[in-house]
Specification:
It is a single chain. By secondary structure, the protein is α/β, with parallel strands linked by helices. The protein has a domain of 143 residues. It is built from 13 helices and eleven strands. The strands form two sheets. The chain has a six-stranded mixed sheet. Strands 2-1-3-10-4 form a five-stranded mixed sheet, sandwiched between helices. The longest helix is centred in the C-terminal third of the chain and has 37 residues. It is globular, with a radius of gyration of 20 Å. The N and C termini lie far apart (48 Å).
Length: 348
């Protein structure tokens, strides 16, 4: 089984074709009754110490507590599949679980956009309990994900510190007016939409290419979480951090809903234990430990200037965000979207 999976994942076309032929049974149907071998993936390399902490702990828990119930093969750093291949591989049943940055997959799973909506993320960041396991918002997210046969085990205890605008010495950004006409690396659809009125040129490139793009002047700035800045040593190419809370994300473990439902109770218990550990440790470690004690000091030591947004810029960005909210509600359905936003803002 291991060789078959690995061969399959090296050819995404074959994976898609296999899924089409096999249908809803998926590739794991043959071993569902045993449910002892779990293959998991993550594209983040160990250099992202904060983002790797939770996934490493989750996998370690499975390995230590799995015993005869569960064994794990885990591939980080895109060793088995690249970031854009993870969700198709999961859907094809070629892997059993994945860790994924929510901002990367909101176009495929729109409900996850609630973790990155401009004007919402600052509230969610300050109130992580609103994304806790068993919370109304988390239940709503999984109800919507279930329509695509996806299950999010946990949101990791909340979203991470919001993404800000980081710019070079040649093209410093210290206000929203400075954004106009700039070439900016952005991953999330939500931040891209919010900045559309400012006539930016949004560039989607991988984090591994960002350092060179900044050095060569291919881009002027990047919307990024500090994990990306530190993990890719981007502070060496940056001059200004404009702390406007653009968007955010969490990194979550995902499974197929059908795979989860088919598991024996003892296997579920082990996985639930790992998810609970992840819930209690991931976001809090990033936001409260490694970011303030290691990442931000390194960025400041590199000479990056931190600029706080004016009240006028904050109000302007919130106004721009309303169009993003409306567009997102069209994607997920008005009733679902309004409920999710209200839950995230603590209004219900």
């Amino acid at each position: 089984m291991q060789i078959t999976r690995r061969a399959l994942l090296k050819n995404s076309t074959l994976a898609s074709a296999s899924f089409a032929l096999i249908g809803g049974q998926s590739l794991f149907a043959g071993h569902a009754s045993a449910a002892t071998k779990f293959t998991g993936v993550y594209y983040i390399p160990p250099s992202y110490e904060a983002l790797s902490y939770g996934s490493d702990g989750f996998v370690d828990y499975l390995k230590k507590q799995g015993g005869d119930t569960l064994s794990v093969d885990y591939y980080h750093s895109g060793q088995l599949v690249k970031a854009d291949e993870q969700l198709p591989a999961l859907r094809a049943g070629a892997i059993d679980f994945m860790f994924h940055t929510t901002s990367y997959i909101t176009r495929s799973l729109p409900i996850l956009g609630i973790t990155g909506l401009p004007g919402v993320v600052d509230e969610l960041y300050r109130n992580p309990q609103r994304l806790a396991k068993g919370s109304p918002l988390m239940e709503l997210i999984n109800e919507e994900l279930a329509k695509d046969n996806i299950y999010m085990l946990t949101a990791g205890g909340g979203i991470l510190q919001p993404e800000f605008i980081w710019s070079t010495a040649a093209s410093p950004i210290r206000s929203l007016d400075d954004v106009r006409g700039k070439k900016i690396r952005i991953v999330s659809f939500e931040a891209t939409s919010a900045l559309k009125p400012f006539n930016i040129a949004a560039v989607r490139i991988s984090s591994s290419e960002t350092y060179m793009a900044l050095e060569r002047g291919t881009i002027d700035a990047a919307v990024a979480n500090i994990s990306t800045i530190y993990g890719r040593s981007l502070q060496e190419q940056l001059k200004v951090c404009y702390e406007l809370p653009m968007t955010s994300f969490t990194v979550a473990p995902f499974m197929l809903r059908s795979r989860w439902d088919a598991l024996e109770d003892d296997a579920k218990q082990v996985i639930e234990g790992a998810a609970q550990w992840y819930e209690e440790n991931f976001a809090s470690y990033c936001n409260d430990v490694i970011y303030p004690n290691k990442y931000w000091p390194a960025v400041q030591e590199a000479g990056v200037e931190v600029v706080l947004p004016s009240e006028e810029d904050l109000a302007t960005y919130r106004e721009s965000s309303q169009a993003v909210w409306e567009e997102w509600k069209e994607q997920v359905g008005k009733e679902v979207g309004e409920k999710a936003i209200s839950l995230a803002l603590g209004q219900i």
